[in-house]
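ok trying again, last paste got cut off:
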Amino acid sequence: MLRANRNRVRIIPDNDAVGRDHADRIARSCRAAGLHDVCIVELPGVPAKGDVSDYLDAHSKDELVALLKAAVPYTPTTRSEPVSASSTTEHASEKAGKKKAVAQGRSVELHDPEAWPEAVDGAVLLDAIVT
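nice, full thing came through this time. structure:
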């Protein structure tokens, strides 16, 4: 069961192919579970294999929140293989006649979480994460 105002999902992948593929799988699972406000948020300026902590080393919490608010809704791809940063190169090599093995993932079951007993201030939570 979805609770009021609990259906917004923002996924921040690590800056590598594995992180982006994982984010895509999570987004697909969320959509399959009936969530429609799902976004994958790519953080600008994060080094290769970096993550949100690297972003916060160089940017403010307010900048992160602004990116999360401006995120574009996730649109599933129709491709059979996972999406990655090298997908353009891989697609070109497929066109050249090279066969590519399709990685198989495992299904992710999403269970209804138990609601936290008290309200959580998102800004305070982000400050605690940064600290």
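cool. The two ends are 33 Å apart (CA to CA). The longest strand covers residues 8-11.
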